[in-house]
Every structure is written in structure tokens, then in C-alpha cells.
Amino acid sequence: MSSSQPSSSSKKQTLFITSLIILWYSSNIGVLLLNKFLLSNYGFRFPILLTMCHMSACSLLSYISIVFMKVVPLQQVKSRRQFLKIATLSVVFCGSVVGGNISLRYLAVSFNQAVGATTPFFTALFAYLVSFKREAWVTYAALVPVVAGVVIASGGEPGFHWFGFIMCISATAARAFKSVLQGILLSSEGEKLNSMNLMLYMSPIAVIVLMPATLMMEHNVLEETLSLGRKHRYMWLLLFVNSTMAYSANLLNFLVTKHTSALTLQVLGNAKGAVAVVISILLFKNPVTFIGIAGYTMTVLGVVAYGETKRRFR
């Protein structure tokens, strides 16, 4: 009887973690595909407004999750200096999300994911430039196929668009810069925030930054959005689901890390990109070439090799 108890508990734990991973995959891939559908196939051409919707949902749902549902303990901002650091991270984060959403208007999801896979290259670059943190030469060597793969994939991409590509690279670089900056700015024990509390404080700042940017940079945004809402009765529902998924992706990212490990998350993240590529090709029927697939495969293998060498030569 005593031996079956741990087995039953272990099965429940495995089922729980598996369910978390499936939900995490679904929310991450779902928000990416819905972004593409809204921005490219649906006529909703406002990536900054879309990002503001995401941040508004993150702001409200983070507050409900932490303050009312007690998903994680509430961590207080202890000083004006700490608040300014969080505000800086929020602006960089805004830039990365807006850039990613803009790129989806011009690029296929498959190519967008191939470029996004170069995040480790930019993370290593910024870690060296900002904090002079050096890795073993083998780790840097593993980044060569990461970059080479994207160069190859670019050459084989039928729908290649220079502006979309520049925005995608900028978004990837901003995402990497945010993670390096976060490690530096919130490194002291008294200032560290878990990802859920960081989202709670970053999201409202992002909404405040994005609101004037939307009105100034996206011409006739209110009139056209209302017109589109009257034309397509499901648009508001799609925006609501999309924004809720954006928050769910962050929440589930935190929970998967908490119940597994950062290394597991990295491995799952690599696989998630490949799954997103396959699903997007099946859904949007965007043409792919053998060169494009070979380039993306090289990038993913480079990312895997980078993660492994970083773990071994730590």
C-alpha cells in the first residue's frame, strides 16, 4: 500500500506538469497565430494598439492573480530607484513586442520564428557589451550556425520583406537586451522580483507609454478599429481571446519554470518554435523552400548546441 502511494502521487505530478506544458504551448503558439491572423489576414493593421491590448490584459489579470487569487505573494516596489529600473525594462519590453507584432504584418510566422531563434546570439552579445561577461570560446562557436541559419533561411524565404526583417531582428535584439538588463538592474536581493510581479508593475507602465504612441503613430486608429468591429462581429472576441492568451503565456511560462527547470524550459522553447512553424505553414499555407527549412533547422540546432555548451562550460 505504501509503495503505491508515491506512484500515484508521481503520476498526478507528471500529469499536472504535462498539462501545464500543453497549455503553455497552446497559449504561446495561439497568441502568435492570432497576431498574424489579425494583422495580416483580418485587416487589423494596428500592431501598437494590439500590443496595448495585450499589456492592458496583462495589467488587469496580473492584479487579479496576485492580489486576489494569491497565485504568488505580492512583492512591493521598495524605492523610486527600483521603480525607474522597472520602467526602463517596461519600455524596452514594449519595443520588443511592438517590433515583433509589426514584423508579423510583413513576414510569414515560420520566418518570424526563424529570426526569433537568434535570441541567444543577441543575449551573448549584450551580456559581453554591457557587463563584459565572457563565455567559453566553444559557446561562442555554437552561435555561428545560429546566425548562419537565419542568413540561409533569408535567402530561401519567398516572402522576404526588408522592413519586416529589420523589425523582427530589432524585436529579437530588444528581447535579449531586456533579459540582460533585467539581470543587471534587478540583481540585488532586495530588488529581485519574480516574473509575475515584474509583469504586474511593467504592464501599466507599458499601457501609459503605448497609448500616446498608438494615437500619434497609427493614423485613424479609433475610427478604423470601430469600423472593423462593425464589419466583423467576432473582432472584439478575437482581440479579447488574443489579449487573454498573451497574459496566459506569461503566467504559464512562470509556472512551467517553477515546476520544471530553466533548462527544461529552454529545450521546450526550442521545440515550441518548430511546432509553431509547422502549424503556421499548415494554417496560412505560406510557401516554404528547402533552403528556408534547412536554414531554420541549422538555427535551431545551433541554439540547442549553445544551450548545451553553456551548461557544460559554466
TrEMBL record:
It is a multi-pass membrane protein. Residues 17-306 form the Sugar phosphate transporter domain. The keyword Lipid metabolism does not apply. Pfam families: TPT (PF03151). It is found in: Membrane. SUPFAM superfamilies: Multidrug resistance efflux transporter EmrE (SSF103481). This is Sugar phosphate transporter domain-containing protein. Keywords: Membrane, Transmembrane, Transmembrane helix. The chain crosses the membrane at residues 15-34, 46-71, 83-104, 110-130, 137-154, 160-177, 198-215, 235-256, 263-284, 290-307. GO terms for cellular component: membrane. The keyword Membrane applies. Its main location: membrane.
